[in-house]
Every structure is written in C-alpha cells, then in structure tokens.
Amino acid sequence: MSEMTDMIHEDPLPGHESRLEPQPEWEPRYPGSGRLAGKVAIVTGGDSGIGRAVAALYAREGADVAILYLCEHDDAKKTVEIVESEGARAIAIAGDLGSKAFCGRAVDQVMKELGSIDILVNNAGEQHPDEDITDISEEQLRRTFQTNIFSMFFLTQAARPHLRRGAAVINCTSVTMYQGSGELLDYSSTKGAITAFTRSLSESLIGDGIRANAVAPGPIWTPLNPCGGASPEKLEHFGESTPMGRPGQPNEVAPSFLFLACDDASYMSGQVLHPNGGTIVNG
Question: Catalyses which reaction (predicted)?
Fold first, then answer.
C-alpha cells in the first residue's frame, strides 16, 4: 500500500470497521458474471463500509480496483486482500481527498500501476451530528464540504483526461438529501450539492459517452455512524424508522453501484438509485 500524507489525521471518523460489532456484511451475494471484466475502478472510502462492499463486488465482476482512503490502514489492507482473493489487482492509496494535490497524485499512481480509469466511484464522506445550527463550527462546516463535495470535484477533475467513451462516474449522495435531517444540517447540505453535481456532470459528460449517476443510501451499518457520525440516541434506534424497520447492509447497496457501472445501465445518466429500506422519496 502507498501513503500520501496530505493532512492525514486520526479523527474519530470515519472509524475502523474491524472494531465494529456486529460486523457489517460486505460479501457479494452471488457469483460474478464478468460484467466488469478488463475494467479499472477507483473507489474512494474503499477501506470499509459501502466502499469495501463495492470494491469486493467490482472485483468479483472482473475489475481491478484502486482504493483511496484516509488513514484506516488495517481496514484498507483487508479490502486489498478481499479484492485480490477474487483474482483482481488492487492498490490502496492513503491521503486526504479534500486536497486537490493528493487527488492529482493518486490518479497519476492509478494510471501508472493499473493503466486506465473506467469507473470512478466518489463514495468517501464524513458527518457530524449537531442538534442546533449554532453548534456547527466554521471548521466543521468547511471540513464537511471539503471531504464530501470538494473531493468529488478534485478527483473527477484529475480523472477526467483519462475517462474515455463508456466510462462511468458514480457518486454517493444520501436519503438525507431528500428527507432532510435535523441533526445533520451540514452533511445533508453536501448531499444536496452532490445530487446537483451529478445531474450537472451528466449534462457535461454525456456528449462524450461518459455516464454520471448517483446512489442515495438510507441508514446503512458502516463505521460512519457508530464511530461518531450519529448521536447515541439516534444510534440506539438506527434504521428502525425505515419501512423495513432495520438498517441496511453494505452488500445491499453495492449492487446499485454495480448496475450503474456496467452496460446494464447504458441508457441511464443523471439519475439516482435509492437503496433505503423502502422510504419513498421524489428524485
């Protein structure tokens, strides 16, 4: 694994998947059918949670995977092992996606080691619960936007010269973009920006045969919430408010990312899929 140390720091977030109980379910649920054979994917936040499940499923479907992550080296090592166990190549690059310089160097390394970029999954994010808007510090506000949406601009800018006809960009937004969240004002705002970014990016790229779509998960059992991303009160009943009455698992979200990455979704761009436990939203 490689390490790029732009502003890498050990915050409580995003947290280590290896320490969660129960363990999130990342394993693909069915045999691969070669839908991504010969492709190379970048998956941000690929060390754990939804990103790990996406990396595992992409590898099962034949893609080589570059995992970009912050500083959870044990989780990243595990994800690399998962990808390689599927017979695919994997590299892990540590650094702050909120840094434009890091994004540029990471893309250069992916091109050098894996040779192409066919799929870009902008999944990494952070959130911090606050009961009142006055509790959100300027530093937190800037950091949340830098991690959640600036990173998507920076990485997509860096990858754009390497994206060819047939490539796919898939961004992770959230059900909170559609429902709102009283204790996640800054996070939900970034997710609204991500949805608008996705729709506008689609308009920008579709003429070159590059599709841009998004996935808007509901409450999913990943390190993001139990490692400081949700209040203890919310965590106690996490996911119970969905029609299904439970949180989702990462491997219940990953197939949406697979569908949007492969030729099955060749006539879809600017769209959002909603693996959210049955919550009805417009969008």
Answer: 2,5-dichlorocyclohexa-2,5-dien-1,4-diol + NAD(+) = 2,5-dichlorohydroquinone + NADH + H(+)
